[in-house]
């Protein structure tokens, strides 16, 4: 059934449409963070200004009429409160207007599920790396089907760490891809490396790297920061894979677009004769299609939410969200 | 040399030195990371692990004896016994496990992975093995995490035997027990399911 999905947990207002597990539209408008990062109220305003246009664009791209849509999904969390509210309210309004069933979707689960779909992964160790989150996820069936967290960051998300460092370096745009660009040709400097079992931490690393700004070459700093942080993620992922006895590795979330991190994880997979895979980049960045994708499965599995119960949860954890059947 | 186990960062081999059976734990190169970081981590961790085993064995705690230490490898006495995770732990064994952890914490070693998978019963005596994640610390946080891991690995009944014995054997256990309660209250631990 055609299901529309709305996403606005951070800088992207995304609208996707899915029919029988197939993405037929994935449109977005993205707030430009420049050198300052995100101010939640400003980003929310941006989403409000763009919501109608992106929704119309998605429906047009899907080549269907609005009346053919049978269900709607929105990002319930985690994310920034003011931003989340925009998709929540838009979803409620559309649901009323078009008489649609609503699914309240967990953002992390949506990233993992769309990657499982496009990466053709059955039961992987999934490294979910974005601005606010960094977790190692695996599917568990008990006490209910869900993504359990095998390991995660003790403090900030990897994306947040890279973005902060980009801001400290005054790079424009101030986010991770600029760090990746500037890391070319860098030499390795020793930086704090923190892994405990399957958990990891990034603030010590960020502080030390920031102290070294001005005393070292930018390329060396960017290269060393990436290498240190990504090695920590790989070690934790490798340990989780062995402990949980998995044969597949997936990566999802915004930082999954980083080529160096992908090549490192691929190396981990090779060493354990496992398969490594990921989704096309448009699904690693925040997008509405992944929300629609999970929403369709949820609605087919009887997991709809009455319109007066459609909340947002800024700290909605993946391991508390029921996962619909494939 | 036969490989008998593979961890995330080290491989365990069965080998012989002067006709005596030995276990060799070697931290292997990880191709995914740069050479400078790879060597630093392998060297530091090997050194720390060896130092901790020596410290514990010096305090009379049952651990495998070290025969030789290389840059990235440790040769240890081969214990022949069964892991507690493959047995049905008895009251006596859980009591002993509590005493063992208390004595480790007394000399400021946090194990880092204190579960029945790292306790081995040899000749009716309980040995602690695998110090790959251990550290020398007097932080009650790290010590409380040792308790937490055990708590998540065994039944509530076995855990309470273990914790009681730990409390009785360690003079200053109140701070650590309180810390454990505090950790469990933190958001990320409430919903997290552990292996």
Protein model, in words:
The complex is a heterodimer of chains A (326) and B (195). In chain A, the strands form 3 sheets. A 5-stranded mixed β-sheet of chain A has the order 3-2-1-4-5, with helices on both faces. In chain A, strands 8-7-6-11-12 form a 5-stranded mixed β-sheet, with helices on both faces. In chain A, 42% of the residues lie in helices and 21% in strands. Chain A is α/β, with parallel strands linked by helices and 326 residues long. Chain A has helices at 40-62, 81-98, 107-118, 158-168, 176-182, 203-211, 218-244, 259-271, 281-284, 289-300; strands at residues 3-7, 12-19, 22-30, 71-77, 101-106, 125-129, 134-140, 146-152, 195-196, 199-200, 248-252, 275-278. Chain A starts with a strand and ends in a 26-residue tail after the last helix. In chain A, helix 1 (40-62) packs parallel to helix 2 and helix 3 (107-118) crosses helix 10. The model of chain A has no long low-confidence stretch (mean pLDDT 96). Chain A is globular and about 60 Å long. Chain A has 2 domains: 2-110 and 283-320, Nucleotidyltransferase, domain 5, CATH 3.30.420.40; 121-278, ATPase, nucleotide binding domain (Nucleotidyltransferase, domain 5). Chain B has 195 residues and is an alpha+beta fold. In chain B, helix 2 packs across helix 4 and helix 3 (140-151) crosses helix 5 (174-185). Chain B is globular, with a radius of gyration of 17 Å. Chain B has 6 helices and 10 strands; from the N terminus they run E-E-E-H-E-E-E-H-E-E-E-E-H-H-H-H. Residues 190-195 of chain B have low confidence and may be disordered. In chain B, a hairpin with a 2-residue loop joins strand 2 and strand 3 (20-27). In chain B, the strands form 3 sheets. A 5-stranded antiparallel β-sheet of chain B has the order 1-2-3-5-4, with helices on one face. Chain B has helices at residues 35-58, 91-106, 140-151, 156-169, 174-185, 187-190, and strands at residues 2-6, 10-17, 20-27, 66-69, 73-77, 82-83, 109-110, 119-122, 125-128, 135-136.
């Amino acid at each position: 059934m055609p299901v529309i999905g709305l996403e606005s947990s951070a800088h992207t207002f995304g609208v996707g449409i899915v029919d029988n597990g197939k993405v037929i539209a994935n449109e977005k408008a993205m707030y430009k963070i420049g050198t300052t990062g995100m101010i939640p109220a400003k980003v929310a305003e941006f989403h409000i200004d763009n919501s109608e246009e992106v929704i119309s664009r998605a429906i047009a791209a899907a080549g269907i009429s609005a009346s053919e849509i049978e269900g709607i999904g929105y990002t319930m969390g985690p994310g920034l409160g003011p931003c989340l509210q925009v998709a929540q309210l838009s979803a409620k309004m559309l649901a009323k207007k078009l008489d649609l069933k609503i699914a309240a979707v967990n953002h992390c689960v949506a990233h993992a599920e769309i990657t499982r779909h496009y990466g053709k992964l059955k039961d992987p160790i999934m490294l979910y790396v974005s601005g606010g989150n960094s977790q190692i996820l695996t599917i568990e069936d008990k006490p209910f089907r869900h993504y359990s967290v095998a390991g995660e960051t003790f403090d900030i998300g990897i994306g947040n760490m890279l973005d902060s460092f980009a801001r400290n370096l005054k790079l424009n745009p101030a986010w991770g891809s600029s760090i990746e660009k500037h890391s070319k040709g860098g030499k390795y400097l020793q930086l704090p490396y923190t892994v405990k079992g399957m958990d990891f931490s990034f603030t010590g690393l960020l502080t030390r790297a920031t102290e070294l700004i001005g005393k070292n070459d930018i390329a060396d700093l960017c290269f060393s920061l990436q290498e240190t942080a990504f090695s920590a993620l790989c070690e934790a992922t490798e340990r989780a894979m062995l402990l949980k006895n998995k044969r597949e590795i997936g990566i999802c979330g915004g930082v999954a677009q980083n080529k160096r991190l992908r090549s490192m994880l691929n190396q981990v997979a090779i060493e354990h004769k496992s398969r490594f895979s990921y989704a096309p980049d448009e699904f690693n960045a925040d997008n509405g299609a992944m929300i629609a994708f999970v929403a369709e499965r949820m609605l087919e599995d009887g997991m709809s939410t009455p319109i007066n119960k459609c909340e947002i949860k800024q700290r909605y954890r993946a391991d508390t969200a029921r996962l619909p059947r494939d | 040399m036969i490989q008998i186990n593979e961890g995330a960062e080290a491989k365990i081999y069965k080998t012989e030195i002067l006709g005596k059976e030995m276990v060799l734990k070697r931290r292997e190169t990880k191709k995914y990371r740069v050479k400078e970081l790879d060597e630093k981590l392998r060297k530091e961790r090997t050194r720390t692990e060896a130092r901790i085993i020596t410290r514990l064995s010096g305090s009379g705690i049952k651990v495998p004896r070290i025969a030789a230490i290389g840059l990235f490898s440790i040769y240890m006495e081969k214990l022949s016994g069964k892991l507690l995770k493959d047995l049905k732990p008895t009251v006596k064994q859980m009591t002993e496990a509590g005493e063992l952890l208390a004595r480790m914490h007394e000399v400021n070693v946090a194990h880092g992975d204190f579960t029945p998978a790292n306790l081995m019963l040899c000749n009716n005596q309980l040995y602690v093995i695998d110090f790959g994640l251990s550290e020398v610390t007097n932080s009650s946080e790290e010590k409380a995490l040792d308790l937490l891991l055990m708590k998540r690995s065994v039944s509530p009944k076995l855990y309470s035997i273990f914790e009681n014995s730990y409390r009785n054997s360690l003079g200053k256990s109140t701070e650590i027990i309180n810390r454990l309660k505090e950790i469990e209250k933190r958001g990320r631990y409430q919903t997290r399911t552990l292996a």
